[in-house]
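This part of the workshop introduces the protein records we will be handling. As an example, a complete record with its sequence and its structure tokens follows.
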Amino acid sequence: MAAVKTALVIGGGIAGPVTALALRAAGIEATVYEAYAITADGVGGQLTIAPNGLAALGIVGADEVVRAIGLPMVRTIMTDGSGKRMGEFPGLAGLPPSRALWRADLYRALHDHALAQGVWTEYGKRLVGVEESPTGITARFADGTTATGDVLVGADGIRSTVRDLIDPAAPGPDHVPLLNFGAVADVTVPARRAATYFSFGKKAFLGYWSQPDGTTAWFGNVPHKEPMSIAQARQTPAAEWLKRLREIFADDVPGRELLQRTSVDQLVVLGSLEIMPKVPHWYRDRMVLVGDSVHAPSSSSGQGASLAMESAIQLARCLRDLPDVASAFAAYEGLRRERVEKVAWRASKTNNSKALGPVAIAMMGLMMPLAMKTFLNPEKTLGAEQRYRIDWQAPVTASLSRPAGSRG
């Protein structure tokens, strides 16, 4: 019988409510503690939930609420800055399409679903320290209150406090030399239905897709060597950023039109893309990490949120089935580390392609038809990621604390 009956989940973003739902499904009472005093409605840019993420959400009954708010994407089409098609990647056979959506919509859907299932979130609870005993762990919050449970799960993002408590020498996030922006343009540009477009422009990268209301959602990655936090980026007025972006995409199709038809109030300024390097210690004593706090691949992976959902499920399985906290945490890391690090490695290669010059982009266009039949074949590049499924009913044993394969 599992030794864990209660859990404190630190962080009320995307990973937090999914982790609490999974723990409750495993028979563990879980409460979410969020540092901010209010919800994160309206915060964040666009993201994708891949088929493996939808499968993980299905285990906690949240897949349908995400399908309802996300747009299905059945193909990815790559173009150069002139709008010329370089290649097309279809979705993988037999899998449901990925869903493109706004982070704010995903946040609200997951929180509403978790609340409906009895998961409670306490706001204004900024973690400042912990006290551990042989039988439990107590979280201390900045407001002077405390909470005690059998384990504490850090789902508190890329600047995790829990990660620092586990290992004060743990690495922080690395920046990718690309600035990230997103918006909705009040225009319909030529685009196939249910397709994500990746446009390698003359000076920057642009992704976009058509929305049912006739608008076009887009995100842009602009080369920028020095790191820039969200706070730093937002010190520059949005109107100034929009002016710069219009200049950067002025010679690109459809970048020019999308930027011209984007209003200042629609522009989301997100600063530098960030990734987590390898984290040496995923857990210590009664504390453990999930999601971006321990594995945050670049958004170029299209897998960040999906991997967080998988990890939440696998952690719950391990705590459900193994007799003590130490063996459960070890099995969890064994099931997850190799998989998430492979995805991060692939995403780093994608990041490099977003800063190519005109000559390299032209060469990429010439090579793309052959590449898609060989080393860029969608099944070879994405099959292991998107076909991954967790068998919730299968018991976890200590022997499973090995690198994950195609099934958990």
